[in-house]
Design goal:
Elements: H1 3-21, H2 28-43, H3 47-65, H4 74-89, H5 107-131, H6 136-139, H7 147-181, H8 184-198, H9 207-228, H10 232-253
Helix pairs in contact: 1-2, 1-3, 1-7, 1-8, 2-3, 3-4, 3-7, 5-9, 5-10, 7-8, 7-10, 8-9, 9-10
Length: about 250
């Protein structure tokens, strides 16, 4: 079996395993499976396979060390930070940073961004109004905040969450899948599927409707990432969806 075939298998099965971990009650077997893929990536010297499997391993392993790692923002912030430190410390596997660019916002990309922002804002408001989800887990963190602090916290949440999720899904995962299949369509759909399942249990929006909504949203963000050739456009687009989420929480808590 060729190295390129093994690379494709390692990356694709790692993403499948990670996606399943978001909806399964036990993640231990998934963690062990991803650890095997990480070792395989090292053995076959697959830089892209190491990138994807290392990040996915850290994402699932670190919460086992400390329960706080399962909560926002540490659940993504710490794995991303550790991932970057490891990648930067090993020169031969730094090539994943070829996708870490700002990119450009052309007229077509701007139109797609505005459409995506509008659709996401409307969809989030409709999900909240029609399904009336239990938001107590989120409201408990902001109800006692002074109004001014709440406003700064909202902007900080929207920006930090947008950056973290875009780095995880539209950079690491999307880049890995693109290297495995050399197909923008496959890489966009794959990362969107994982992004959607991430929201199944505790996301905003969550549940089956939340998975479908974020899957479609992930596809749009993936297309924006692909067309803009950088991370700036998807991060800016994502920021407005997260800002809408915080505004919904603020209005609910008042």
């Amino acid at each position: 079996m060729s190295r390129s075939t093994l690379n494709t298998i390692v990356i694709s099965l790692t993403i499948v395993a990670l996606s399943l971990s978001f909806i399964l009650p036990s993640r231990l077997w998934v963690l062990l499976l991803i650890a095997f893929f990480l070792i395989t990536g090292v053995v076959i010297r697959s830089k892209e396979g190491i990138h994807v499997s290392l990040f996915c391993f850290l994402l699932l392993f670190l919460p086992l060390i400390s329960p706080i790692m399962a909560w926002w923002p540490w659940s993504l912030l710490v794995p991303l930070t550790v991932f970057h430190l490891i990648i930067l410390s090993i020169p031969p596997i730094r090539r994943s940073y070829t996708w870490l660019k700002l990119g450009s916002i052309s007229k077509d990309v701007l139109i797609l961004m505005l459409i995506t922002i509008s659709m996401s804002v409307i969809a989030l408001i409709c999900w909240y109004r029609l399904l009336k989800p239990d938001l107590s887990i989120y409201l408990g963190q902001i109800q006692n905040m002074p109004l001014m602090l709440m406003l700064f916290a909202g902007l900080g949440f929207a920006l930090l969450n947008a950056v973290m999720e875009e780095l995880a899904f539209r950079w690491i995962i999307m880049n890995g899948m693109n290297s495995a299949f050399n197909s923008p369509a496959v890489s966009i759909i794959s990362q969107a599927g994982a992004f959607g399942l991430l929201h199944y249990i505790a996301g905003f929006p969550n549940g089956s409707a939340g998975v479908l909504m974020t899957f479609v949203y992930g596809i749009l963000l993936g297309v924006i990432r692909y067309k803009s050739k950088g991370m700036m456009a998807p991060v800016v687009t994502h920021f407005f969806a997260d800002l809408t989420i915080f505004i919904i929480l603020i209005t609910t808590s008042l």
